[in-house]
Amino acid sequence: MGATEQALADRSRERGRQARRILDDLGLLRAWGRYGRPVVVGAVAHGLALDPDIDLEVYCPRLDPRHGFAVLAVAASRPGVLETRYRNHLDGPDKALYWQIRYRAADGEDWKIDMWSAPDDYALPRGEDLVEPLRRALTPETRQAVLRLKAWRAATHTACLSIDLYRAVLDGGVRQPGELAAWLARNETGVLTAWTPA
User: Sign of the C-alpha dihedral, residues 4, 8, 13, 15?
Assistant: First the structure.
């Protein structure tokens, strides 16, 4: 592993540690646990985080916006919380409630925490269903490729969902930015998908 790739791997591990500390500091898993089953998903769950972002899904026996506002109230009482947001997507393609927290860590870096609450019987693709299959499918080489491509995506402001990037690496054999650009041009991307690695 080259110095740049080692730096990306180290950064990803540190991002995961920071994310867990922030979740603990804000008491989010405990607060959401009063109303449902919170699951860490996305890059933090996959061990592929480079950006200051955390994603949660919460599966609730009774979906009630008041519960989410109670969680935001708990978080907003903690130091570092700059902003909270809510949006009802029940009538949209996501069929869930969206919550967001903007948080400034002790080191001055701003984090975004995206949370979706949905009913227990949520029938659309779930991020939690990707966590274990992706962990099993990743090898050291494909993990390095994903992190390298994520760094390139951020540096070039290329529009590409992380799940599409994972598809490109694991199903499409993509390893380099030029290959990713070609793969994105050939494949349907940017849509809700139940994809898991083959």
Answer: positive
Q: Tens digits of per-residue pLDDT, 132-184? A: 999 999 999 999 999 999 999 999 999 999 999 999 999 999 999 999 999 99
4-38 pLDDT per residue, tens: 889 999 999 999 999 999 999 999 999 999 999 99
Buried b or exposed e, range 50-84, using 16+ CB within 10 angstroms? bebbbbbbbbbeebeeebbeebbebbeeeebbeeb
CB of 155 within 8 A of CB of 149?
Answer: no
Structure tokens at 79: 């130091």
Tally of CB atoms within 10 A around 184: 19
The Cα–Cα gap between 17 and 147 comes to 17
129 has a pLDDT exceeding 90: yes
**Which amino acid is located at 8 in the chain?**
L
